[in-house]
Amino acid sequence: MTVYGFHSLRHSFASHCAEAGVPKAVLLSILGTDSDIADKYYTHIGDEAQEKAIAAVAGTAPTATDRQRIEKALALIESSSAPAEEVLKQVSDILKS
């Protein structure tokens, strides 16, 4: 059995905030810690954020905004008569692009 404590929740919160683009000053204020501690122990950027950064630098970042992709996915869901599994795959592809 794995036991999670406050430190685990604090670490996860900090990492999720960092990946979501919360400004570092805001995160430090919420955590009540200094920059060195937050950088070393709390904020770890995940694979998805790293892939987005690489795509942006390489010039291969998606051209559609998040909102545009969501609207396109919702339109597909509302209008498609394909089997649910196929629609789910198409929606997933839209949201990843």
TrEMBL record:
<keyword id="KW-0233">DNA recombination</keyword>
<dbReference type="GO" id="GO:0003677">
    <property type="term" value="F:DNA binding"/>
</dbReference>
<dbReference type="GO" id="GO:0006310">
    <property type="term" value="P:DNA recombination"/>
</dbReference>
<dbReference type="InterPro" id="IPR013762">
    <property type="entry name" value="Integrase-like_cat_sf"/>
</dbReference>
<dbReference type="GO" id="GO:0015074">
    <property type="term" value="P:DNA integration"/>
</dbReference>
<dbReference type="InterPro" id="IPR011010">
    <property type="entry name" value="DNA_brk_join_enz"/>
</dbReference>
<protein>
    <submittedName>
        <fullName>Phage integrase family protein</fullName>
    </submittedName>
</protein>
